[in-house]
TrEMBL record:
It comes from the Eukaryota. Belongs to the glycosyltransferase 8 family. It is an enzyme of class 2 (transferase). GO terms for biological process: cell wall organization. Pathway: Glycan metabolism; pectin biosynthesis. Keywords: Cell wall biogenesis/degradation, Glycoprotein, Glycosyltransferase, Membrane, Signal, Signal-anchor, Transferase, Transmembrane, Transmembrane helix. It is found in: Endomembrane system. InterPro entries: Glyco_trans_8, Glycosyltrans_8_dom-fam, Nucleotide-diphossugar_trans. Residues 1-22 form the signal peptide. This is Hexosyltransferase. One of its GO terms (cellular component) is Golgi apparatus. It is a single-pass type II membrane protein. It comes from Brassica campestris (Field mustard).
Amino acid sequence: MRFSGLVSALLAIIVLSPSLQSFPPAEAIRSSHLDAYLRFPSSDAPPHRFSFRRAPLFRNAADCAAADAGIGVCSPSLVHVAITLDFEYLRGSIAAVHSILQHSSCPESVFFHFLVSETDLESLVRASFPELKFKVYYFDPEIVRSMISTSVRQALEQPLNYARNYLADMLEPCVRRVIYLDSDLIVVDDIAKLWRTNLGSKTIGAPEYCHANFTKYFTPAFWSDERFSGAFRGRSPCYFNTGVMVMDLERWRSVGYTEVIERWMEIQKSDRIYELGSLPPFLLVFAGEVAPIEHRWNQHGLGGDNVRGSCRDLHPGPVSLLHWSGSGKPWFRLDSRKPCPLDTLWAPYDLYGHSR
Ligand SMILES: *[C@@H]1O[C@H](CO)[C@@H](O)[C@H](O)[C@H]1NC(C)=O
Protein backbone atom coordinates (compact mmCIF):
# COMPACT_ATOMS: atom_id res chain seq x y z
CA MET A 1 0.00 0.00 0.00
CA ARG A 2 2.78 2.37 0.97
CA PHE A 3 4.52 1.59 -2.30
CA SER A 4 1.49 2.28 -4.50
CA GLY A 5 0.86 5.47 -2.52
CA LEU A 6 4.38 6.59 -3.32
CA VAL A 7 3.89 5.79 -6.99
CA SER A 8 0.67 7.79 -7.03
CA ALA A 9 2.38 10.70 -5.34
CA LEU A 10 5.20 10.61 -7.89
CA LEU A 11 2.69 10.45 -10.72
CA ALA A 12 0.84 13.40 -9.24
CA ILE A 13 4.09 15.37 -9.09
CA ILE A 14 4.86 14.51 -12.69
CA VAL A 15 1.36 15.32 -13.88
CA LEU A 16 1.10 18.57 -11.93
CA SER A 17 4.60 19.83 -12.58
CA PRO A 18 4.03 23.08 -14.46
CA SER A 19 6.96 22.65 -16.79
CA LEU A 20 5.43 19.44 -18.09
CA GLN A 21 2.13 20.98 -18.98
CA SER A 22 1.35 23.09 -21.95
CA PHE A 23 1.28 26.42 -20.26
CA PRO A 24 -1.81 28.47 -21.06
CA PRO A 25 -4.77 26.31 -22.09
CA ALA A 26 -4.81 27.75 -25.58
CA GLU A 27 -1.39 26.29 -26.22
CA ALA A 28 -2.40 22.83 -25.18
CA ILE A 29 -3.26 22.14 -28.80
CA ARG A 30 -0.64 19.93 -30.28
CA SER A 31 -0.23 18.02 -33.43
CA SER A 32 -2.19 14.82 -32.86
CA HIS A 33 0.70 12.68 -34.12
CA LEU A 34 2.80 13.98 -31.28
CA ASP A 35 0.42 13.35 -28.44
CA ALA A 36 1.33 9.69 -28.34
CA TYR A 37 4.99 10.53 -27.83
CA LEU A 38 4.64 13.43 -25.48
CA ARG A 39 2.01 12.20 -23.10
CA PHE A 40 4.52 10.80 -20.64
CA PRO A 41 7.70 12.86 -20.57
CA SER A 42 10.30 10.85 -18.78
CA SER A 43 11.47 13.43 -16.26
CA ASP A 44 11.19 17.03 -15.21
CA ALA A 45 14.76 17.79 -16.23
CA PRO A 46 15.48 18.34 -19.90
CA PRO A 47 16.44 14.95 -21.27
CA HIS A 48 19.52 13.84 -23.17
CA ARG A 49 22.80 15.68 -23.23
CA PHE A 50 21.09 19.02 -23.58
CA SER A 51 20.56 21.59 -20.94
CA PHE A 52 19.41 25.10 -21.68
CA ARG A 53 19.14 28.06 -19.35
CA ARG A 54 15.85 29.83 -18.83
CA ALA A 55 15.54 33.05 -20.81
CA PRO A 56 14.28 36.18 -19.08
CA LEU A 57 10.55 36.91 -19.48
CA PHE A 58 9.87 39.30 -22.33
CA ARG A 59 6.77 41.46 -21.95
CA ASN A 60 4.65 43.38 -24.44
CA ALA A 61 4.99 47.13 -24.59
CA ALA A 62 1.94 49.13 -23.53
CA ASP A 63 0.76 49.83 -27.08
CA CYS A 64 0.70 46.17 -28.20
CA ALA A 65 -2.61 44.46 -28.90
CA ALA A 66 -3.71 42.37 -25.93
CA ALA A 67 -1.89 39.05 -26.00
CA ASP A 68 -2.76 37.42 -22.71
CA ALA A 69 -1.93 33.81 -22.08
CA GLY A 70 -5.38 32.61 -23.07
CA ILE A 71 -5.41 33.78 -26.68
CA GLY A 72 -5.24 31.02 -29.22
CA VAL A 73 -3.33 30.43 -32.42
CA CYS A 74 -6.16 31.93 -34.51
CA SER A 75 -6.03 35.34 -32.83
CA PRO A 76 -5.58 37.97 -35.57
CA SER A 77 -3.05 40.01 -33.58
CA LEU A 78 -0.34 37.33 -33.67
CA VAL A 79 2.89 37.25 -35.63
CA HIS A 80 3.47 33.65 -36.79
CA VAL A 81 6.99 32.25 -37.03
CA ALA A 82 7.89 28.72 -38.17
CA ILE A 83 11.24 27.12 -37.25
CA THR A 84 12.45 23.52 -37.33
CA LEU A 85 13.76 21.86 -34.18
CA ASP A 86 16.15 18.95 -34.27
CA PHE A 87 18.95 17.81 -31.99
CA GLU A 88 21.69 18.86 -34.37
CA TYR A 89 20.60 22.50 -34.67
CA LEU A 90 18.65 22.81 -31.43
CA ARG A 91 21.10 25.27 -29.93
CA GLY A 92 20.67 27.47 -32.98
CA SER A 93 16.88 27.28 -32.93
CA ILE A 94 16.75 28.23 -29.24
CA ALA A 95 19.09 31.18 -29.87
CA ALA A 96 16.92 32.28 -32.81
CA VAL A 97 13.79 32.29 -30.64
CA HIS A 98 15.65 34.15 -27.90
CA SER A 99 16.81 36.81 -30.37
CA ILE A 100 13.31 37.31 -31.78
CA LEU A 101 11.78 37.79 -28.32
CA GLN A 102 14.52 40.15 -27.20
CA HIS A 103 14.12 42.51 -30.14
CA SER A 104 10.31 42.47 -30.41
CA SER A 105 8.30 45.31 -28.96
CA CYS A 106 5.41 42.82 -28.69
CA PRO A 107 7.17 39.54 -27.82
CA GLU A 108 4.03 38.04 -26.28
CA SER A 109 2.30 38.46 -29.63
CA VAL A 110 4.70 36.14 -31.45
CA PHE A 111 3.42 32.59 -31.95
CA PHE A 112 5.99 29.92 -32.82
CA HIS A 113 5.27 26.90 -34.96
CA PHE A 114 7.97 24.28 -34.40
CA LEU A 115 8.46 21.51 -36.93
CA VAL A 116 10.02 18.38 -35.49
CA SER A 117 10.85 14.84 -36.54
CA GLU A 118 12.13 13.81 -33.10
CA THR A 119 10.45 13.65 -29.73
CA ASP A 120 11.30 15.26 -26.37
CA LEU A 121 12.13 18.66 -27.80
CA GLU A 122 9.00 20.38 -26.54
CA SER A 123 10.06 20.13 -22.88
CA LEU A 124 13.41 21.72 -23.73
CA VAL A 125 11.71 24.70 -25.36
CA ARG A 126 9.31 25.05 -22.46
CA ALA A 127 12.17 25.00 -19.95
CA SER A 128 13.90 27.93 -21.67
CA PHE A 129 10.75 29.90 -22.48
CA PRO A 130 8.10 29.11 -19.83
CA GLU A 131 5.46 31.43 -21.29
CA LEU A 132 6.18 31.05 -24.99
CA LYS A 133 3.18 30.71 -27.27
CA PHE A 134 3.95 27.75 -29.47
CA LYS A 135 2.74 24.60 -31.07
CA VAL A 136 4.76 21.59 -32.15
CA TYR A 137 4.07 19.79 -35.42
CA TYR A 138 5.39 16.38 -36.22
CA PHE A 139 6.89 16.22 -39.70
CA ASP A 140 7.06 12.64 -40.91
CA PRO A 141 10.44 12.18 -42.66
CA GLU A 142 8.88 9.45 -44.79
CA ILE A 143 6.83 12.12 -46.59
CA VAL A 144 9.93 13.25 -48.45
CA ARG A 145 12.29 10.31 -48.14
CA SER A 146 10.80 8.63 -51.18
CA MET A 147 11.10 11.89 -53.10
CA ILE A 148 14.72 12.66 -52.24
CA SER A 149 16.93 11.09 -54.87
CA THR A 150 19.73 8.97 -53.54
CA SER A 151 22.91 10.72 -54.64
CA VAL A 152 25.60 10.82 -51.96
CA ARG A 153 25.17 14.52 -51.47
CA GLN A 154 21.46 14.31 -50.91
CA ALA A 155 21.70 11.27 -48.67
CA LEU A 156 23.37 13.63 -46.21
CA GLU A 157 20.46 15.96 -46.29
CA GLN A 158 17.89 16.07 -43.50
CA PRO A 159 14.29 15.40 -44.48
CA LEU A 160 13.41 18.22 -42.07
CA ASN A 161 14.94 20.65 -44.60
CA TYR A 162 11.87 19.95 -46.69
CA ALA A 163 9.36 20.70 -43.93
CA ARG A 164 9.03 24.32 -45.18
CA ASN A 165 7.37 22.92 -48.32
CA TYR A 166 4.53 21.61 -46.18
CA LEU A 167 3.81 24.57 -43.90
CA ALA A 168 0.59 25.43 -45.69
CA ASP A 169 -0.70 21.91 -45.06
CA MET A 170 0.60 21.47 -41.52
CA LEU A 171 -0.29 24.78 -39.89
CA GLU A 172 -3.81 25.63 -38.75
CA PRO A 173 -5.99 26.83 -41.65
CA CYS A 174 -6.58 30.08 -39.70
CA VAL A 175 -2.85 30.86 -40.01
CA ARG A 176 -2.78 32.80 -43.26
CA ARG A 177 0.75 34.10 -43.22
CA VAL A 178 3.94 32.79 -41.65
CA ILE A 179 7.57 33.82 -41.48
CA TYR A 180 9.77 30.79 -42.09
CA LEU A 181 13.23 31.00 -40.50
CA ASP A 182 16.23 28.67 -40.58
CA SER A 183 17.80 27.54 -37.31
CA ASP A 184 21.22 29.11 -37.87
CA LEU A 185 20.29 32.77 -37.61
CA ILE A 186 19.52 35.54 -35.17
CA VAL A 187 17.08 38.42 -35.59
CA VAL A 188 18.35 41.76 -34.28
CA ASP A 189 15.35 43.90 -35.23
CA ASP A 190 11.63 43.83 -34.51
CA ILE A 191 10.21 40.79 -36.34
CA ALA A 192 6.89 42.66 -36.65
CA LYS A 193 8.52 44.81 -39.36
CA LEU A 194 9.27 41.73 -41.45
CA TRP A 195 5.77 40.44 -40.73
CA ARG A 196 4.21 43.57 -42.27
CA THR A 197 5.98 43.00 -45.63
CA ASN A 198 3.72 43.85 -48.55
CA LEU A 199 3.67 40.76 -50.76
CA GLY A 200 1.51 42.39 -53.43
CA SER A 201 0.20 39.59 -55.62
CA LYS A 202 3.09 37.25 -54.75
CA THR A 203 2.91 34.13 -52.60
CA ILE A 204 6.31 34.46 -50.97
CA GLY A 205 8.66 37.28 -50.11
CA ALA A 206 12.44 37.00 -49.67
CA PRO A 207 15.56 39.05 -50.33
CA GLU A 208 16.61 38.38 -53.94
CA TYR A 209 20.17 38.19 -55.25
CA CYS A 210 20.03 38.97 -58.94
CA HIS A 211 23.81 39.25 -59.37
CA ALA A 212 24.26 35.57 -58.37
CA ASN A 213 24.80 33.15 -61.25
CA PHE A 214 21.43 31.46 -61.45
CA THR A 215 22.58 28.91 -64.05
CA LYS A 216 24.61 26.91 -61.57
CA TYR A 217 21.62 25.79 -59.50
CA PHE A 218 20.48 23.49 -62.30
CA THR A 219 22.25 20.86 -64.39
CA PRO A 220 23.10 21.17 -68.10
CA ALA A 221 20.44 18.48 -68.62
CA PHE A 222 17.89 20.90 -67.18
CA TRP A 223 18.92 23.87 -69.31
CA SER A 224 19.12 21.86 -72.52
CA ASP A 225 15.64 20.41 -72.18
CA GLU A 226 12.88 22.85 -73.02
CA ARG A 227 10.36 20.73 -71.06
CA PHE A 228 12.24 21.76 -67.91
CA SER A 229 13.90 25.12 -68.57
CA GLY A 230 10.66 26.31 -70.18
CA ALA A 231 9.40 26.67 -66.61
CA PHE A 232 11.29 29.99 -66.47
CA ARG A 233 9.84 31.36 -69.71
CA GLY A 234 8.46 34.85 -69.15
CA ARG A 235 10.24 35.18 -65.80
CA SER A 236 13.53 36.82 -64.84
CA PRO A 237 14.58 34.39 -62.16
CA CYS A 238 16.95 35.45 -59.40
CA TYR A 239 18.47 33.37 -56.64
CA PHE A 240 16.91 33.77 -53.22
CA ASN A 241 17.74 32.04 -49.95
CA THR A 242 14.90 29.90 -48.60
CA GLY A 243 16.08 30.34 -45.01
CA VAL A 244 14.11 33.56 -44.55
CA MET A 245 10.72 33.75 -46.25
CA VAL A 246 7.43 35.51 -45.65
CA MET A 247 4.78 33.13 -46.96
CA ASP A 248 1.15 33.77 -47.84
CA LEU A 249 -0.27 30.40 -46.83
CA GLU A 250 -3.74 31.18 -48.04
CA ARG A 251 -2.55 31.79 -51.58
CA TRP A 252 -0.20 28.80 -51.35
CA ARG A 253 -3.11 26.56 -50.40
CA SER A 254 -5.42 27.87 -53.09
CA VAL A 255 -2.86 27.30 -55.87
CA GLY A 256 -1.64 24.01 -54.39
CA TYR A 257 2.08 24.85 -54.51
CA THR A 258 2.98 21.83 -52.37
CA GLU A 259 1.95 19.54 -55.22
CA VAL A 260 3.80 21.68 -57.77
CA ILE A 261 7.01 21.35 -55.73
CA GLU A 262 6.45 17.62 -55.31
CA ARG A 263 6.09 17.22 -59.09
CA TRP A 264 9.54 18.77 -59.61
CA MET A 265 10.98 16.48 -56.94
CA GLU A 266 9.57 13.49 -58.81
CA ILE A 267 11.15 14.75 -62.05
CA GLN A 268 14.48 15.09 -60.24
CA LYS A 269 14.39 11.39 -59.38
CA SER A 270 14.33 10.40 -63.04
CA ASP A 271 16.17 13.28 -64.75
CA ARG A 272 18.66 14.88 -62.30
CA ILE A 273 17.79 18.44 -63.08
CA TYR A 274 19.71 19.90 -60.10
CA GLU A 275 22.43 19.03 -57.56
CA LEU A 276 21.31 20.55 -54.28
CA GLY A 277 18.29 19.23 -52.40
CA SER A 278 15.51 21.39 -51.04
CA LEU A 279 16.42 24.76 -52.62
CA PRO A 280 16.03 24.17 -56.40
CA PRO A 281 12.35 23.14 -56.32
CA PHE A 282 11.63 26.45 -54.57
CA LEU A 283 13.61 28.32 -57.22
CA LEU A 284 11.75 26.45 -59.95
CA VAL A 285 8.37 27.46 -58.63
CA PHE A 286 9.02 30.95 -57.29
CA ALA A 287 12.21 32.53 -58.71
CA GLY A 288 11.22 35.69 -60.57
CA GLU A 289 7.88 35.65 -58.75
CA VAL A 290 9.15 36.68 -55.35
CA ALA A 291 8.16 39.85 -53.51
CA PRO A 292 11.51 41.51 -52.80
CA ILE A 293 12.47 42.09 -49.18
CA GLU A 294 15.32 44.34 -48.06
CA HIS A 295 18.65 42.54 -47.83
CA ARG A 296 19.01 43.60 -44.21
CA TRP A 297 16.60 40.71 -43.43
CA ASN A 298 18.99 38.02 -44.62
CA GLN A 299 22.67 38.79 -44.12
CA HIS A 300 23.49 35.26 -45.20
CA GLY A 301 26.64 33.21 -45.76
CA LEU A 302 28.19 33.86 -42.33
CA GLY A 303 28.78 30.12 -41.87
CA GLY A 304 31.39 30.36 -44.60
CA ASP A 305 33.29 27.26 -45.47
CA ASN A 306 34.25 25.23 -42.46
CA VAL A 307 36.65 23.04 -44.39
CA ARG A 308 38.89 25.97 -45.12
CA GLY A 309 37.95 27.71 -41.90
CA SER A 310 37.07 30.86 -43.78
CA CYS A 311 35.22 33.64 -42.05
CA ARG A 312 32.76 35.81 -43.91
CA ASP A 313 32.00 39.44 -43.43
CA LEU A 314 28.63 41.17 -43.55
CA HIS A 315 27.36 42.48 -46.86
CA PRO A 316 27.30 46.29 -46.98
CA GLY A 317 24.19 47.95 -45.61
CA PRO A 318 21.99 47.70 -42.53
CA VAL A 319 21.50 44.44 -40.61
CA SER A 320 18.23 43.11 -39.19
CA LEU A 321 19.04 39.40 -39.37
CA LEU A 322 22.35 37.51 -39.35
CA HIS A 323 22.32 34.09 -41.01
CA TRP A 324 25.15 31.55 -40.61
CA SER A 325 24.29 29.70 -43.81
CA GLY A 326 27.19 27.71 -45.18
CA SER A 327 28.93 24.83 -43.51
CA GLY A 328 30.31 26.53 -40.36
CA LYS A 329 28.04 27.17 -37.39
CA PRO A 330 28.82 29.68 -34.65
CA TRP A 331 28.18 27.27 -31.77
CA PHE A 332 30.71 24.74 -33.10
CA ARG A 333 33.32 27.40 -33.74
CA LEU A 334 32.81 29.03 -30.34
CA ASP A 335 33.10 25.63 -28.62
CA SER A 336 36.27 24.85 -30.50
CA ARG A 337 37.67 28.26 -29.49
CA LYS A 338 38.19 29.23 -33.11
CA PRO A 339 35.31 31.63 -33.61
CA CYS A 340 34.95 33.95 -36.53
CA PRO A 341 34.67 37.62 -35.51
CA LEU A 342 30.91 37.75 -36.22
CA ASP A 343 30.26 34.60 -34.15
CA THR A 344 30.58 36.78 -31.07
CA LEU A 345 27.34 38.49 -32.16
CA TRP A 346 25.55 35.13 -31.93
CA ALA A 347 26.93 34.22 -28.49
CA PRO A 348 24.70 36.54 -26.36
CA TYR A 349 21.59 34.66 -27.56
CA ASP A 350 23.00 31.23 -26.75
CA LEU A 351 21.14 29.60 -23.85
CA TYR A 352 23.03 26.33 -23.92
CA GLY A 353 24.50 25.06 -20.67
CA HIS A 354 23.65 25.14 -16.99
CA SER A 355 22.64 28.20 -15.00
CA ARG A 356 25.58 30.11 -13.74
C1 LIG B 1 27.38 30.66 -64.63
O1 LIG B 1 27.51 29.29 -64.27
C2 LIG B 1 27.58 28.43 -65.37
C3 LIG B 1 27.52 27.00 -64.86
O2 LIG B 1 28.36 26.82 -63.75
C4 LIG B 1 28.82 28.74 -66.19
O3 LIG B 1 28.92 27.89 -67.28
C5 LIG B 1 28.75 30.19 -66.66
O4 LIG B 1 29.93 30.53 -67.31
C6 LIG B 1 28.53 31.12 -65.46
N1 LIG B 1 28.29 32.47 -65.96
C7 LIG B 1 28.91 33.53 -65.49
C8 LIG B 1 28.50 34.83 -66.06
O5 LIG B 1 29.75 33.47 -64.61
